[in-house]
């Protein structure tokens, strides 16, 4: 990745940018044929909304309840090459899978099989700040010229996996679907035990109060950061930055904040998801 020119690090597919190294076009094409199962455990999130956090929580919930560790590594289906995607058909149930894809661009078999899906979403301002720092530090992504240029790209949806607002609106449409549970980064920060309990109940992995408590304690930002050398290797510092609500205040100008508030008003005001995304 170090030798790759910045302009080659992203490519556009159906109008949306993707990272060339992590999810090349051949992966996206192969993924269209992925055969979802009814009992897959699926996690979906726009980038930087707390995906890795929820990966850790779901893995611990599944391990505590079933006694199996499951597959290692990032579960993002668009990161699996065509061969690895084929091998997925041999993985025993329940498989734990994840994606950053917009719900309209996910393999259609997930909807057909009514696979349960946990969605984690975060307020758009902190997501933008997290995405900016991630882009600066991650060698597979182009380095933004500045916070201001990144902000402009984020607002126009010219970042990997597309526009935050397009994703949020697509989830808003599905918010009452019984197979979908939407949680926010902010509510997880507020009460992680409650979040763990809701997740275990949603996916049908019953846990004792003690198990829930232990998982919540092991999944705080500080414990995950401490263990991140093992879980994320060299990328530990890239994925575990600050882990707080409201860091946008240290980055946004008045004008940037007003512009995003206006976009939020225009697109999400009065919606159920909009009400959950207070910031
Ligand atoms: P910050 O950059 O604001 O610190 P993703 O996993 O979707 O890429 O999201 C990354 C964001 O989640 C980063 O936000 C990261 O620090 C934060 N994060 C990771 N683990 C966390 C945890 N256990 N608790 C709270 N936030 C966490």
Describe this structure in words.
The chain has helices at residues 25-31, 51-66, 82-87, 109-112, 124-137, 147-156, 164-173, 185-190, 192-203, 209-218, 221-226, 228-232, 236-239, 254-268, 272-276; strands at 10-13, 16-19, 41-45, 96-99, 117-121, 180-184. It has 279 residues and is of the alpha/beta class. The strands form 2 sheets. A 4-stranded parallel sheet has the order 4-3-5-6. Strands 1-2 form a two-stranded antiparallel ribbon. α2 runs antiparallel to α10 and α9 (192-203) crosses α10 (209-218). The structure holds adenosine-3'-5'-diphosphate (A3P). The site of adenosine-3'-5'-diphosphate has 21 residues, from α2, α5 and α11.
According to CATH, the fold-level topology is Rossmann fold
**What ligands does this structure carry?**
adenosine-3'-5'-diphosphate
What is the helix fraction of residues, given as a range?
Answer: 40-55%
CATH domain class:
Alpha Beta
> Using only CA atoms, what is the Rg?
18 Å
Q: Helix/strand/pairing class, anyone? A: alpha/beta
How many beta-strand elements?
Answer: 6
* Total separate domains: 1
CATH architecture: 3-Layer(aba) Sandwich
Helix and strand sequence? EEHEHHEHEHHHEHHHHHHHH
Segments where pLDDT lies below 50 for 5+ residues? Answer: none
Span of the ends, CA to CA: 35 Å
Name the CATH superfamily assignment.
P-loop containing nucleotide triphosphate hydrolases
Strand coverage percent: 5-15%
Distinctive features:
15 helices; binds adenosine-3'-5'-diphosphate; Rossmann fold; 6 strands; four-stranded parallel beta sheet; 279 residues; two-stranded antiparallel ribbon; globular; alpha/beta
């Amino acid at each position: 990745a170090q030798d790759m020119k910045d302009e080659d690090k992203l490519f556009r597919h159906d109008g949306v940018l993707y990272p060339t190294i992590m999810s090349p076009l051949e992966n996206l094409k192969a993924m269209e044929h992925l055969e979802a199962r009814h009992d897959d455990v699926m996690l979906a999130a726009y980038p930087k909304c707390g995906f890795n956090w929820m990966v850790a929580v779901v893995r611990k919930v599944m391990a505590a309840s079933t006694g199996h560790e499951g597959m290692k590594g990032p579960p993002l289906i668009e990161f699996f090459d065509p061969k690895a995607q084929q091998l997925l058909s041999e993985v025993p149930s329940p498989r734990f899978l994840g994606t950053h894809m917009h719900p309209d661009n996910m393999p259609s078999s997930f909807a057909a099989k009514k696979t349960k899906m946990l969605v984690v979403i975060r307020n758009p301002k902190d997501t933008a700040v997290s995405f900016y720092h991630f882009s600066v530090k991650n060698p597979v992504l182009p380095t933004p010229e500045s916070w201001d240029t990144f902000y402009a790209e984020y607002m126009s949806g010219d970042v990997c996996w597309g526009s935050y607002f397009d994703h949020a609106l697509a989830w808003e449409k599905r918010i009452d679907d019984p197979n979908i549970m939407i949680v926010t980064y902010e509510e997880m920060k507020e009460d992680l035990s409650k979040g763990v309990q809701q997740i275990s109940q949603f996916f049908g992995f019953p846990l004792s109060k003690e198990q829930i408590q232990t998982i919540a304690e092991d999944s705080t930002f500080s414990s995950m950061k401490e263990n991140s050398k093992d879980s994320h290797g060299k990328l530990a510092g890239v994925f575990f930055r600050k882990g707080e609500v409201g860091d946008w205040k240290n980055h946004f100008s008045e004008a940037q904040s007003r512009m995003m508030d206006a976009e939020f008003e225009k697109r999400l005001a009065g919606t159920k998801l909009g009400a959950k995304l207070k910031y």
